[in-house]
Design brief:
CATH class of the largest domain in chain B: Alpha Beta
CATH architecture of the largest domain in chain B: 3-Layer(aba) Sandwich
Shape of chain B: globular
CATH class of chain A: Mainly Alpha
CATH superfamily of the largest domain in chain B: Type I PLP-dependent aspartate aminotransferase-like (Major domain)
CATH topology of the largest domain in chain B: Aspartate Aminotransferase, domain 2
Structural class of chain B: alpha/beta
Oligomer: heterodimer
Low-confidence stretches of chain A: none
Structural class of chain A: mainly alpha
Strand content of chain B: 15-25%
Number of domains of chain B: 2
Number of strands of chain A: 0
Largest sheet of chain A: none
Distance between the termini of chain A: 11 Å
CATH architecture of chain A: Orthogonal Bundle
Radius of gyration of chain A: 12 Å
Bound molecules: pyridoxal-5'-phosphate
Largest sheet of chain B: 7 strands, mixed
CATH topology of chain A: Non-ribosomal Peptide Synthetase Peptidyl Carrier Protein, Chain A
Helix content of chain A: 40-55%
Helix content of chain B: 40-55%
Number of domains of chain A: 1
Strand order of the largest sheet of chain B: 4-12-11-10-7-5-6
CATH superfamily of chain A: ACP-like
Number of helices of chain A: 4
Order of helices and strands of chain A: HHHH
Mean pLDDT of chain A: 89
Order of helices and strands of chain B: HEEEHHEHEHEHEEEHEHEEHHHHEHEEEH
Chain lengths: 81, 399
């Protein structure tokens, strides 16, 4: 099972193709404010994360996730279950 | 005091900026007179209507109007009550009978609007611990139904069969699952691959609800919608529809063959806690629905109109939402809101009304000029419409 650092590295890699502004990624980087993603980009990115880890991130969960770090935590938690 | 309306400042600003460019407010048009399903007077000018969803032109049907007048005379102007108290008249029951005949299904439940039908059915079916799986481009009423309920919500890419399948397979096998699809998506007028999608839902133990708002009366051999056209209507658990489009009045409904469907009347809050539709509306709806069962010729003409408009707009150089006409909605994609509003106004000046659609209602932040055809548009009117698009398109530099 992937550990937290591996998840973070993978998430950062998946953000790559969507990071049009070349924003420096940190756990506190926000998807809306820093990366300025619209809803369509969010959906494509979430689908990429879901496929990579073979999980489902429901819209209810997505509403709670604002930063890259929170996403990594959520992925880690979903992988445990 | 915090002004609770200050959160709308960006939108207020955007509107002001748009109006400052000299365009009229596209969201406050008034129809001064309505002459027929296809012609109204707007700003004192005779205007062809190409954005009403009045697909079958039933609003001025003689039998429909007569039935409404008779019911108004005999039953009065309103029911002043909920369907489960004093608000069910024989006419409401008869309207549900008409729906059962139309769809050849066992149960029908009439709501005050289609919006409420989605709101009520989705929020009631999918409870805590259940999952609703929906297309990302779903109508606002579907999203609001999800928001009102307590289920977990999972979205998948628009019309993507594989994305739906992957998500269904990842969900817990024992969890309750409701997949919500639309026959025709109203923004681009594209049709869903229901044949594959419904099969996948069944293989993965999910119940299926299909919103056929934009296909009723028009698509499928008996006008039952895309489910019928693609041969999967028997595998769909619930169909949601509206009277505000092909039926030509107002109201919403859910039809189903589920043996326990009747219990929904008692537990569905948007059905219980609102007044039922006026008797005249029920009479117009039943009459219209029964006439739509025998409207093969009108359906054929509506297809002709849709194909002709699609081909004509493509030939003029417009970018359209679908490669060919898949429904009676033809969406013209505009580069941005300002150009879209200019084109909308130029068309209105020519004497043509279309729907201007903008984010967030539209997918991918598109600005659309949405055209919906009517079976009562004559072939000559479609020629006229194309002439107006050419003149307006050239005037604002859209083509
Ligand atoms: C797909 C879809 N579902 C539901 C509705 C709601 O219908 P109604 O106008 O009856 O509330 C609409 C129309 O607005 C629609 O386009």
């Amino acid at each position: 099972m992937a550990n937290r650092e591996e998840i973070m590295a993978k998430v950062s890699e998946l953000i790559g193709p969507f990071n049009n502004k070349g924003v420096e990624l940190a756990p506190g980087t926000t998807f809306q404010g820093d990366l300025e993603w619209d809803s369509l980009t969010v959906m494509d990115f979430v689908a990429a994360v879901e496929d990579e880890f073979d999980i489902i991130i429901t819209m209810n969960m997505q509403a709670e996730i604002e930063t890259v770090g929170q996403l990594a935590d959520a992925v880690a938690k979903l992988m445990e279950n | 005091m915090t002004d609770l309306l200050s959160k709308f400042d960006p939108l207020i600003q955007e509107r002001e900026n748009l109006l400052a460019t000299g365009v009229k407010d596209p969201f406050s048009l008034v129809m001064e007179e309505v002459l027929s399903p296809t012609v109204a007077i707007c700003n004192g000018k005779e205007t062809i209507l190409l954005g009403t969803y009045n697909y079958m032109g039933m609003t001025f049907d003689d039998d429909v109007r007569q039935a409404g007048l008779k019911a108004l005379e005999e039953f009065g102007s309103g029911t002043t009550g909920s369907r489960v108290l004093n608000g069910t008249y024989s006419l409401h029951r008869d309207c549900e009978e008409a729906l059962k005949e139309f769809y050849d299904m066992d149960h029908a439940m009439v709501f005050s609007t289609g919006y409420q039908a989605n709101l009520g059915i989705i929020s009631t079916l999918a409870g805590k611990g259940d999952y609703v799986i929906l297309d990302i481009d779903s109508h606002a009423s579907i999203y609001d139904g999800c928001a009102m309920g307590n289920a977990e919500i999972v979205a998948f890419r628009h019309n993507d069969v594989e994305a739906l399948e992957k998500r269904l397979k990842r969900l817990p096998a024992e969890a309750g699952k409701l997949v919500v699809l639309e026959g025709v998506y109203s923004m681009l007028g594209d049709v869903a691959p229901l044949k594959e999608m419904v099969r996948i839902c069944k293989e993965n133990g999910a119940m299926v609800l299909v919103d056929e708002a934009h296909s009723m009366g028009f698509i499928g051999e008996n006008g039952r919608g895309v489910c019928e056209e693609q041969g999967v209507i028997d595998d769909v658990d619930f169909i949601i529809g509206t009277f505000s489009k092909s039926v030509g009045t107002v109201g919403g409904f859910c039809v189903s063959n589920h043996p326990k469907a009747e219990i929904l009347r008692l537990v569905c809050r948007p059905y219980v806690f609102t007044a039922s539709l006026p008797p005249s509306v029920m009479a117009t709806a039943s009459t219209s629905i029964r006439k739509l069962m025998h409207s093969g010729n009108k359906r054929a003409h509506l297809w002709e109109n849709s194909k002709k408009l699609h081909q004509g707009l493509r030939d003029l150089g417009f970018t359209l939402g679908t490669p060919e006409a898949q429904s009676a909605i033809i969406a013209v994609i505009m580069p941005d809101l300002e150009k879209g509003a200019m084109m909308w106004q130029a068309l209105l000046a020519e004497g043509l009304y279309v729907n201007l659609a903008r984010p967030p209602a539209t997918p991918a932040n598109m600005t659309l000029l949405r055209c919906s055809l009517c079976a009562e548009h004559t072939s000559e009117q479609v020629d006229q419409i194309l002439g107006m698009f050419e003149a307006a398109g050239k005037a604002v530099g859209a083509i």
